[in-house]
Amino acid sequence: MTDPNRIDLEEIAPAEVGEIDLYQHREKIYTRKIEGFFQRIRLFSGWPLLVGYLLLPWLYWDGRQAVLFDLPERKFDILGLTFWPQDFPMLAFLLIIAAFGLFAVTTLAGRIWCGYTCPQTVWTSIFMWIEQKTEGSRNQRVKLDQAPWSLEKFIRKTAKHTGWLIVAFATGFTFVAYFYPVRELLSSLVNLDIDSWPPYWIVFFTLATYINAGWMREQVCKYMCPYARFQSVMFDQDTLIVSYDESRGEPRGSRKRDADPAALGLGDCVDCELCVQVCPTGIDIRHGLQYECIGCALCVDACDSVMDKMSYPRGLIRYTSERELEGGHTHWLRPRIIGYAMVLFLMVGVFSYAMFTRVPLELTAIRDRNQLFVATDTNAIDNIYTLQLVNMDREMHEFKISLSGLEGATLIGDTMYTLNGGEVRSIGLRVRMDPTLLSVPSTEILFEAQATDAPQLRTVTESRFVKPL
Prior knowledge:
Blueprint (H helix, E strand, L loop, with lengths): L36 H19 L4 E2 L2 E2 L1 E4 L4 E4 L2 E3 L4 H22 L2 H5 L2 H17 L2 H9 L4 H27 L4 H9 L7 H19 L1 H7 L2 H4 L10 E4 L1 H4 L11 H4 L9 H4 L20 H13 L6 E4 L1 H4 L9 H22 L4 E7 L6 E2 L5 E11 L5 E8 L5 E3 L3 E4 L4 E10 L8 E10 L6 E9 L3
Antiparallel strand pairs: 1-2, 3-4, 4-5, 6-7, 8-10, 9-10, 10-14, 11-13, 11-15, 12-14, 15-16
């Protein structure tokens, strides 16, 4: 017997099935050139960083390259200071400070880092400028790509990619120069020294810059950069973001310049789509806040230029907050911002104190683990130690090892050592003591290392002296 509630799937007419492509083909974005107040700010923020990046490896400080991360020597020269692997906790602390600073800025002003100082944004802007100079305006570039190949198209395309490769090569060369002496690097390139590793890294970073800034562009910001994904957790209703004022702009529509929008039942948006044409990530800011928005304010300058032509007030697209768009007022001082500021102030203070009081000298003491003590013929007790002395200064110094904290103890072994800059020396010493003078089985002792020619180079490490029970 057939169940009346049963549905035979074969009797159902097949419905139309749409195909979903999970790996959508990238549509090339043709950006329009725009100038304005915020673009001048981007110019003043981006170019100094770019120039500093390119010139810093060529500067010298006390006869050394100002910034050089010498990995084979495990030595890092930064503006007259030399750091060693032992200083990595300071680097980690500095990165934590930078992370908290980014969180604080994001909570306050959104993705201002992405829009104004991010290397991907700066280099992409340079590549876009080269593209505009060699292939023309937005409409000219669209027509050029749609046109069949010709001599003019070949020349323009070749000029563009040549400019891209020149900038990419300068970027790759400079990046490697932070890890390899720049003069030796230039010499190896001039002499075509392919047996060394720097030329291959230069090629790698040249291609990486060429692909990222020339071809991928917004794909890096939208899909590769993790900051675009987790930025929203730091936003609140008072975060400053680039937004479209829908209450003022809608309903949008075209009109004559001297027309009264109120009489036409229209808002201030003339639906020119200039905000979309200038966006480097290809979004429409009128659809609301989107994770692809990098806060570059190109759409703000574009919209302001249209508002000026229409004699409308500026600010249809502007830096604002969700609370202000809802009719409220932005709260600048709020618990999260105050908390970030306090933590940053504390961490910067601690880091600055550690930097100014840093002594380029390290001493560690390791007790012999094979035997706690050694009895001598004179009924004394020896404890055996291995001291590791690191001269983290650039210059050679003579150091004296001394002992404190154990009255009547004697150091057995050489206590004077000369170390070159960056040298690490393992020192074997014995501490001899009459056990009858000790009231406890274990006593804390201090080893001290001090440079004889530079008294400020002094450091102390602690250990323990053990006697029989």
